[in-house]
Amino acid sequence: MIYNEDFFEIENLVNELSDELLSSQLVSEYVSVYLEMDQNKEVDTILVDFLKAKEAFELIEPYGKYAPDFKEKRRNVRQHKRILDTNELVSNFKFKETSLQNMLDYVTFDIAKSISEDIKIDAGNPFFEFAKRGCGGSCHVS
């Protein structure tokens, strides 16, 4: 790689973009909600209960329906997961996390498209439909 003035200009622009993103309201809200959730004793208790239920199920999961209490342990994991997911702090965190991820996906898309329309973006989000995903099969036509 050749380090010239263009490289340093790009590096400066990336640093500016990073600083702008970090100081954005969306990132600020995400961090705030994360800290609130992380420090909440109720969420901590719910998470520990879920992880215990999940671990108990994972021990017998390879044996499937032949394991004792398979259905009960699977149901227990689902119940604890639902309790975790419906907790107001957890659901608010997941909403903020998804919003932040969507913003980062759009920024990535805009950067790639400013370079070339042919760049394929894999956003990892099935609802990220405006990006071309993969080659679409046209690259295999002879």
Automatic annotation (TrEMBL):
Gene3D superfamilies (alphabetical): YheA/YmcA-like
InterPro entries linked: Bact_com_dev_regulator, Com_YlbF, YheA/YmcA-like_dom_sf
Any Pfam family hit: Com_YlbF
Domain of life: Bacteria
Protein name: ComK regulator
